Amino acid sequence: MDAVNGYYRHLAIIESQDYLEKVNSLVEEYLKVNKKPRVIYGFHPWLDNSKDRMMEFRKKFENFLDIDYSNSEKYLGQSADLVILDAIGDFRPNYIARFVDMTKGGGMAIIYSDDILRGKLYKESLTRDGVVKDLFERRFMELAKRYRGIIFLQGDRLTFTPYSSNETHKPYKKIPKSPKVPMELHELCLSSDQNKVLEESLFITSPGKRVLVVTAARGRGKSASIGLFLSYLMTEEKFGNILVSSPTYYSSQEIFNFVIKGLDALNVKYKLNTSRDGKIMKITTGDSRVKWVSPDLARNGEGDLIVVDEAAAIGMEFLDYILQGWDKVIFVTTVHGYEGSGKAFLKYVDRLKSKVLLKHIKMDYPIRYAKGDPIEKFMFDLFLLDAEPAEVMYNGELKIEDVSQEELFQDNNLLKSVYGILVTAHYRNSPDDLMLLGDMAFQKVVVGYSSEKPVAVCQVVYEGDLTDRQIEDISNGLKNEGHLIPHRLIKYMRAFEFGKLKGWRIMRIAVSPENQGKGIGSRIIEEVIKMAKGVDWVGSSFVADYSVLSFWIKNGFTPVYLSSIKNEELNGYSVIVIRALSEKSKGFVVKLSSLLKDKLLRTSHQVYYNLNPQLIALLLRNTYSERREGEVPDLYANKIKAYIEGKVPYNVIAEAAHFLITKHFLELKANLSIEVEASLVARVLQGKSWYHAGLMLGLSSREVEERVKQGLEVLLKTYS
Ligand SMILES: CC(=O)SCCNC(=O)CCNC(=O)[C@H](O)C(C)(C)COP(=O)(O)OP(=O)(O)OC[C@H]1O[C@@H](n2cnc3c(N)ncnc32)[C@H](O)[C@@H]1OP(=O)(O)O
Ligand SMILES: Nc1ncnc2c1ncn2[C@@H]1O[C@H](COP(=O)(O)OP(=O)(O)OP(=O)(O)O)[C@@H](O)[C@H]1O
């Protein structure tokens, strides 16, 4: 009852063989306080008996929504009084975080399991040869016993320290006296912070370049209030064309839901464009529209206003690009969230303040529950959501050590600052990564310290050394044994013997943002290579990105593989780089990288049409070649000359240009700048029009053509 008054939540964790009885009696207790709760139930429908369990629960409630864990991203905006998680077959951090988040103030989340440590799906993906650690779960249980508001039932042992409504503050709306934004919209707000956003966002409508930044922890209703504000703008003439972008569609979903709520409240008619799977992609009313576009398209999109949700997660480089192209920009972002990189983004905003007219609105009050909610605190500390790197400036002194996973999980401050580096540098970090760090054996964690504080971290996984049987299974597509690099090279490059070599995959490397570009990453790699005694290769696999790839190439790694399909979730193509440490592996590197070069030369116009041409050029420049092209035919040379002199158009000489560029990348005798090479790649190998090549390269059509001519001239001199 006190929780209802104080609008705070409870979390119950049940680990017991008679879990159903225990959940039922807890639910009975809860029903005494709230007779008709809305219930959300999370599970894997296809696991043994899980559907039966769900059906049993479903009978008990009128308002019941069952959600398949694998689909749960779609339901981020949902909330319920009672959230029940089936943790019999899986105990996965991302799902726990996501579902507990759906619980409303006064409500309760229940996680039930027979045994948290064994037989869990995600954990199995971290298990190799039956070996896995349980540092994550032990920390989870230890915190659950210590934190208030958590009912922890292990067998028949109960730990629970209650919380009190005196310690919480409920959100209330507070409508300003004479609001400029319509009253109907203010009425829809649930906290005074939302009213504030609605009114103060008007800042963006005044003339000139303006940037509005809205930041808060998760669940403060940022997206909702911006959605309401956009519904107002749509009814005003000035903002006819509004784009919304975010790393994934789902982070913007609430914006669209609340544009609709707003338009409904204002009694305005609108039209929806929905994707096949039900996502609202565009809302139109009269001459105005709000449309979602992916970050790739937003870069060169046009309109009157752009909203970027989860802005910190997209990367500052992208934000700079948006700021160059747009006059009216709204950045919405979570700080201290799962996807967030808090301090780095806030520093970025501070720097921006001196360059453009900027307003920064911060929201404090949660929407779904009270400020001071004990479960929010538990989740923050459990998943280290507010982990940040230690503040330290690198002064040239670097101590590099490997730290055992046990040491890391025993020392919360060390864990927090090491994990903070990973969270801040890799925006895709999620609660799952903490479990991976704690539980996956066969890994090595290397930490770089400056002035005794962590500034860099590197996670290494041992791979390879496979048996014939394992290799055969992988080659037949049967099993994924978790050896990522050998797996890809065996399955897609058919390099069976490579599987027998011993390797270290650098799964993660990150340097705290203030200290990047000072040589720390390279020194860590050097040290890791020294540690790799008796190892044939050290490698890495990551989403292809120009500057990250440059880092590996600088450190002596060679690209050997590039995926043929874009990974939609990661929004890019993955690339594998390897540094050979033994003669045997050297042979593979030469062979595989030559094959990669050939693949790029022959298929850039189809397989890699959408890949950044600079990246293709960088790959072509840094791969071996085992074949040569013949002499440049005189006819080709003459044609190209005629083109350079402006006597014939490009299409007339396209085949000659293709020949010459292929020859260049096979022989690498001419020294062209990466910009010129990228223009050649875009036009000649990818077959883009001048216009599209220009879009990719940030150049005008004329500039691209100038570079192509310039490049062809040098190549002709070198090779004919
Ligand atoms: C498997 C993986 O984890 S791949 C992903 C790698 N990690 C990340 O992208 C996280 C964010 N970035 C970082 O943490 C670091 O910048 C790292 C790990 C990529 C590189 O470490 P650093 O100490 O910054 O690199 P270091 O100073 O040794 O080398 C500099 C070179 O790396 C490249 N580089 C890549 N990213 C950066 C960056 N953010 N800042 C500066 N240089 C970078 C450049 O080519 C640079 O050479 P240049 O100065 O001639 O342009
Ligand atoms: N005014 C409102 N009325 C009803 N529900 C609201 C309101 N504002 C927010 N919500 C609900 O609260 C939840 C959090 O809102 P929203 O997604 O806007 O928060 P956010 O701060 O953007 O959080 P996140 O970081 O999760 O994106 C959502 O489920 C949303 O539907």
Structure explained in plain terms:
With 720 residues, the protein is an alpha/beta fold. Strand 2, helix 3 and strand 3 form a beta-alpha-beta unit. The strands form three sheets. The protein has an eight-stranded mixed sheet with strand order 10-11-12-9-13-14-8-15, sandwiched between helices. Helix 25 packs across helix 26 and helix 25 crosses helix 28. The termini are far apart. The mean pLDDT is 93. The protein has four domains: 161 residues, Rossmann fold, CATH 3.40.50; 181 residues, Rossmann fold; 205 residues, Aminopeptidase; 86 residues, Orthogonal Bundle (Arc Repressor Mutant, subunit A). The protein is globular, with a radius of gyration of 28 Å. Acetyl coenzyme *A (ACO) binds next to strand 19, helix 20, strand 20 and helix 21.
Name of the CATH first level of the largest domain: Alpha Beta
β-strand percent reads 15-25%
Give the biggest beta sheet: 8 strands, mixed
Number of strands: 22
CATH topology of the largest domain: Aminopeptidase
In the residues, how many domains can be counted? Answer: 4
* Attached small molecules: acetyl coenzyme *A, adenosine-5'-triphosphate
What shape does the CA trace take?
A: globular
What portion of residues is helical? 40-55%
